[in-house]
């Protein structure tokens, strides 16, 4: 056990975090866009942080549309905000997200169509995110459902031009569908460490794009789904409850829409590809180390069994 504990303390950030985080394959280097406070660990439980009335603002902006920058802006304006890179990954309700994906897209490969999961309700969303005012990137594909569940919430729509968005997705988020690499990571993370992030992201991506594998997400398919998503949001939400925010608009339109004073500081600009990767690596390191410590007895048993099997095999040769 002492040997395992020592091993845990010496886990390098790069190999483990690259396997389980939202990280593109990049070389580590310094970036002026990184704010180390974005990888803080929030130790207080939901009960300790007080009860909430549900989401006050619905962020309708898909992955890779500046979610990290605007998440920091929301926080600066006083909203309790969830972004996968700023909250303890262990505390992210991955199982709830995975179940929501199964309920939303029952055609996801591997699901039993004869046993569909009930569609998520307001109570389900409250149970998962009730402590937050705003949830940004992780549940953005579910924005239409959130709009139905929270009819009084304001909606901030953030849309990039398709071409740069498509290029960004291919270099980052789609790594969750890189087989067999991703399948191995899901097995190790899900079975050995109890991390469902890879499983949840795979189901969201395949379900959202309506495909069975990564190769089916062509540029034509992606563009159609991208346009369909934003058209649906605009159809559901009247102009008086909706802000059309473009990256680079700054504080003024956002603060006017939310009824907040304009901060006397530059609007956050975070999450270029390098910053995205480095922050994800740190978050990945946190989740791996936490899970290994929590599951040390099980992992030790696995190590003992593997060593015994190896020694047995050697003795029979």
Automatic annotation (TrEMBL):
List the SUPFAM superfamilies hit by this protein, alphabetically.
P-loop containing nucleoside triphosphate hydrolases
Xref: InterPro entries: P-loop_NTPase (IPR027417), Sulfotransfer_4 (IPR040632)
Q: Which Gene3D superfamilies match?
A: P-loop containing nucleotide triphosphate hydrolases
- Pfam short name (any one): Sulfotransfer_4
The record's annotation in PANTHER family points to: P-LOOP CONTAINING NUCLEOSIDE TRIPHOSPHATE HYDROLASE PROTEIN, P-LOOP CONTAINING NUCLEOTIDE TRIPHOSPHATE HYDROLASE
Query: What name has this protein been given in UniProt?
Result: Efflux pump antibiotic resistance protein
Species annotation: Microdochium trichocladiopsis
């Amino acid at each position: 056990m002492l040997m395992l504990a020592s091993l845990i303390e010496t886990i390098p950030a790069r190999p483990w975090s690259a396997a389980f985080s939202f990280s593109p394959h990049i070389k580590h280097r310094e970036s002026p866009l990184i704010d180390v406070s974005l990888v803080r660990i929030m130790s207080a439980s939901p009960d300790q942080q007080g009860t909430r009335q549900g989401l006050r603002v619905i962020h309708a902006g898909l992955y890779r549309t500046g979610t990290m920058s605007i998440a920091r802006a929301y926080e600066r304006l006083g909203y309790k905000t969830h972004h996968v890179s700023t909250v303890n990954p262990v505390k992210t309700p991955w199982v709830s997200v995975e179940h929501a994906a199964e309920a939303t897209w029952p055609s996801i490969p591997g699901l039993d169509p004869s046993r569909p999961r009930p569609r998520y309700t307001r109570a389900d969303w409250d149970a998962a995110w009730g402590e937050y005012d705003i949830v940004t990137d992780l549940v953005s594909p579910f924005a239409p459902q959130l709009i139905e569940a929270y009819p009084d919430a304001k909606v901030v729509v953030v849309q990039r031009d398709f071409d740069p968005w498509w290029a960004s997705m291919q270099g980052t988020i789609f790594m969750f569908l890189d087989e067999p690499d991703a399948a191995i990571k899901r097995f190790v993370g899900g079975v050995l460490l109890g991390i469902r992030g890879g499983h949840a992201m795979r189901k969201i991506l395949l379900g959202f794009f309506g495909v069975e594998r990564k190769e089916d997400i062509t540029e034509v398919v992606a563009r159609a789904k991208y346009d369909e998503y934003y058209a649906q949001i605009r159809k559901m939400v009247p102009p008086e409850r909706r802000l059309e925010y473009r990256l680079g608009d700054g504080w003024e339109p956002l603060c006017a829409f939310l009824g907040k004073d304009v901060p006397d500081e530059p609007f956050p600009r975070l999450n270029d590809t390098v910053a995205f990767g480095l922050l994800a690596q740190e978050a990945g390191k946190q989740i791996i180390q936490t899970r290994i410590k929590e599951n040390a007895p099980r992992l030790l048993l696995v190590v003992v069994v593997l060593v015994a099997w190896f020694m047995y095999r050697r003795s029979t040769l």
